Amino acid sequence: MDIRIEKTTTPKQKPGSDNPLVFGTIFTDHMFEMDYTEGIGWHDARIVPYHKLELEPSSMVFHYGQEMFEGLKAYKTDDGRILLFRPDKNAQRANRSNKRLCIPYIPEGLFVESIKAVVSVDRDWIPTKPGTSLYIRPFVIATDPFLGVRPSHTYKYMVILSPVGAYYESGLDPVKIWIEDEYVRAVKGGIGEAKTGGNYAASLASQVKAHDEGYAQVLWLDGVHRKYIEEVGSMNIFFKINGTVVTPELNGSILPGVTRDSVLELCREWGIPTEEKRISVDEIVEAARTGAMEECFGTGTAAVISPVGELRYEQELMPIGGGQIGPVTQRLYDTITGIQLGRIEGPKGWSVEVK
Ligand code: COI
Question: Which is the closest atom of ligand 1 to the Cα of 302?
Answer without folding.
Answer: 2
